[in-house]
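Inverse folding, one chain.
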């Protein structure tokens, strides 16, 4: 996995050829050293509509497809 690839879980499939994916990242607070969780949502292009809600997917960055969508699906890990 390179720097422009991410793994996330599909949370919405209401749009045509687009899925909404959430990515979880953990980091440590600088002062208090508590582990914090940051959630970020991405719009991913799914040309064949093969994803469903709850799938774990691998996606990569590409040229902009629309205003908010600049990620494309590579692989579906779990159904």
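Residues assigned per position:
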């Amino acid at each position: 996995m390179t720097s422009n690839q991410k793994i996330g879980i599909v949370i919405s499939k209401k749009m045509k050829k687009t899925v909404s994916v959430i990515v979880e990242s953990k980091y440590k607070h600088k002062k208090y050293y508590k582990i914090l969780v940051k959630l970020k949502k991405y719009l991913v292009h799914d040309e064949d509509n093969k994803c469903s809600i709850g799938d774990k997917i691998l996606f990569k960055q590409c040229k902009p497809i629309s205003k908010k969508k600049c990620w494309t699906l590579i692989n579906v890990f779990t159904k």
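The radius of gyration is 14 Å. DSSP finds no helices and five strands in the chain.
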